[in-house]
Amino acid sequence: MKAVLDHIGIAVGDLQASLAFFRDALGLHVEASEEVMAQKVRATFVATGPSSLEFLEATAPDSPIAKYLEKRGAGMHHVALRVDDIEAALAHLKSRGVRLIDDQPRPGAERALVAFIHPSAANGVLVELKQAAPKVEMFKTVGRHTLGDLELITLADGFFALDGGSMFGTVPRVLWEKRLPPDDANRIPLSMRPLIVRSDRHTMIIDAGCGDKWDAKSAQIYKLDRRFHLDHALAEAGVAAEDIDLALASHLHWDHVGGFTKIGSNGAIVPRFPNAKYIAHRAEWEDATHPHERSRASYLQQDFVPLMEAGVLTLVDDGAEIIPGVKYRRSGGHTAHHQVVMIESGGETAVFTADMYPTSVHAPDPWLMGYDLYPMDTLGFKRAFGPEAIARNYLLFFEHDPSMAAGHLREKDGKRFVERLI
Ligand SMILES: [Zn+2]
Ligand SMILES: [Zn+2]
């Protein structure tokens, strides 16, 4: 039987007190918390390479964790080993007379199946077996493509998750859930993929992910997973933050421009790319700096106002040419002035579609996000753009697709789909 160390469970009475060491002093990344009803615990994972630490809090007085804390106090609780087939593993252990707590697997955190082995069978250690839930195959590395004289490098700033219903608007869950399986909280995994466009004179980045100015609560709501983030991706691509001389925003939502700024050494928020001229759309800037009740949670002022204050932000209008061959094209729809970026060189065209086609699953025209402020404008854009993209063989970049960075829009028997390239 193959068993891989998945995580070490630690029972805690006070999660914040534990995080003071593991997060604040050690600097480890805290992922989302999840309540596991069946076990009356709340689990919070902290990333430590291929394995993680799982902090367990009791959610009821009769929770096994409450009992454990009463008897033994806070500390190491169990070791979890990941197996491919938990039923087979349990059958194997039973046949060898190993004493089990659970003869049958039960639901655990992250939609996994788990079963515990009695500590008396394992030298006093409580052992959990875990079979991970089937996952969307995440594509988290960098991908390169040459387009005429330009080099395109798709990057990653980690993953997050949003409500699946909101991501697909009026499309029923039964239609999208097989393509992008949701978690127990109905959230689907999404990526943040900025794009580098390199010419002989410029190194431009389009969008920059959500950045790292996040508190634990928001990180939990959006299930941020930035074990592999933009710094790692830039290093893998061989691009230094200092090399970037242009940073272009599709629009000013946090999952697109959070990474334009960072917390500097003195605690002030400063531009992330020290030598870059930042570019945003003038009317989008107006909307972002005057948000209303529906848009306020998406526009975080700290992502872009510090750029203006630092004097590095330039505002441009529809159709602006950023560098030769690279142009804004207004889509509207998602926000009134949302832009896609048309990239042309050597007779070929690539398009950074941002939130017009957030994932390849959004290929059909009416598969629109509930987040769009003007969904009929998104539909209008896709009706015109879709046939054009197919006819001219545009290479589309999907900023939020968890498993595909870029591909070509195709149509067969009246059905739209994407043929993957990267
Ligand atoms: Zn957006
Ligand atoms: Zn977005």
What can you see in these coordinates?
The protein is α+β, with helices and mostly antiparallel strands. Helices cover 21% and strands 32% of the residues. It is built from 11 helices and 26 strands. It has helices at residues 15-25, 64-72, 86-95, 164-168, 173-176, 216-221, 230-237, 254-257, 282-289, 305-309, 375-391, and strands at 4-11, 30-36, 41-48, 51-58, 75-82, 106-107, 113-117, 127-131, 143-147, 150-154, 159-163, 187-191, 195-198, 203-206, 246-248, 261-263, 269-271, 277-281, 313-316, 321-323, 326-330, 339-345, 348-352, 395-397, 406-412, 415-420. A hairpin with a 4-residue loop joins strand 13 and strand 14. The chain is globular and about 70 Å long. The relative contact order is 0.10. One zinc ion binds at residues 253, 255-256, 355, 358, 400.
